[in-house]
Amino acid sequence: MTREESGTEDESSIKAKIIIIDDDPLVLKTIREYLKDEFEVHVARGGEGACSYLEKNRVDLILLDYEMPGEKGDSVLLNIRRIPLSSRTPAVFLTGAADPHTVAEILRLRPQGYLLKPVAREKLIEKIHEVLGKN
Fold first, then answer.
1. Residue 39, φ and ψ in degrees, nearest 5
2. Residues 12-22: pLDDT tens digits?
C-alpha cells in the first residue's frame, strides 16, 4: 500500500497538476522542463487533445497558448469550460502578441493571468504560485 492509498501522503509533497496546451513542440518541451521538478506536468498539442485529456483527468492549472493555428486559445478555453472536471480550473494564457487588441481579447475571457512568450522560468513559476495560492 502506498502512502497515498493509506491516506498518509504529506500534503506538501503532492505536486500540483498542470496541463500545457500549445501547438509548438519546442515551447511544450521548454515549459515542461521549467516545471517538471515542482509540478506534475502534462502537455497537449492543441485544443482537441487537451479536451480529451481533461474529460478524464483533473488538473490544478491550465497554461494555454492564445494563438494556435486552426483553433485560437479563446475557443479552446470555452470548450474546456464545458467539461465538468475543468469548468472551474484556473487558466493562464501564454502569448507572443502584446498588441492592445489581443490583450483585450484575452482579458475578456477572465483568465487568472497571461504571460508574454518567451517567458522566463522564474516569472512563470511565480505566476503559477500566485494563481495556486502558494506565495
1. -130, 160
2. 578 999 999 99
